[in-house]
Amino acid sequence: MAMLEFDDVDVFYGKVQALRGLSLQVEEGEIVALLGNNGAGKTTTLSTASALMNPSSGSVQFNGTDISKGKPWDVVGAGLIHVPEGRRIFSTLSVHENLLLGGYLVKNRALVASRLKHVYELLPLLEQRRSQQGGTLSGGEQQMLAIGRALIAGPKMLMLDEPSMGLAPLIVAQVMQVISDIRDQGTTVLLVEQNARAALKVTDRAYVIEEGATTLEGRAKDMIADPRIIDAYLGA
Ligand code: ATP
């Protein structure tokens, strides 16, 4: 059984249909990327997995539980954590305070402390900046903080929306490396990326989403060489 499974999912914003019979699976331990142009439905797919949007038909399962009529906090409690596009760092709070907010649903304080220690080991730059205000960090550092904050919640699966947005190529490579490290430490990852080239370097599999449905699926190493992907998403 897949960790996350969409089966023939339709989602509407009022009269606008954003997902049209979308199906996908993410297996435990994978990094899977969702590729596609603006407006294809990638962000809506993550919002639906987070139960911020509920489908009008079809089913969404996380770890064997149907979440298609669920509430966002139930999904977070089940270990599916969403890092939204734009990072949403609290700019006047310190790095440390931003991280602690990731643990607001975790009752066990010792667990939060041990996850904090782990995040500071994985992302030492956050420890160096722990007293600094979030708003004073660079874009790349803010992305690392958003990822670190999500890790404090103890995700079984992490969903990242456009983590490379607005970052220089060297920083994008660092973010992708961190995503790969997180997976190696046992967290499954679903990644939305416009930067298909950077994403396919670290992912196991990818789906192309077009007009609200998945139209291509494959192993990343095959997709990198697929002329349809090269023409549409990898450019010259
Ligand atoms: P982007 O990279 O631009 O975020 P995307 O692939 O993530 O693109 P979505 O944001 O999921 O695409 O949008 C899918 C479709 O749903 C688009 O046609 C979009 O215009 C529409 N849509 C998204 N959000 C809303 C909303 N809040 N209200 C109405 N329509 C929306």
From TrEMBL:
A matching Pfam family: ABC_tran
CDD domains: ABC_TM1139_LivF_branched
Family in the record: Belongs to the ABC transporter superfamily.
UniProt-listed GO biological process terms: L-amino acid transport
Molecular function in Gene Ontology: ATP binding; ATP hydrolysis activity; branched-chain amino acid transmembrane transporter activity
SMART domains assigned: AAA (SM00382)
SUPFAM superfamilies: P-loop containing nucleoside triphosphate hydrolases (SSF52540)
Protein name in the entry: ABC transporter ATP-binding protein
Domain of life, per lineage: Bacteria
Keywords attached to this entry: Amino-acid transport, ATP-binding, Nucleotide-binding, Transport
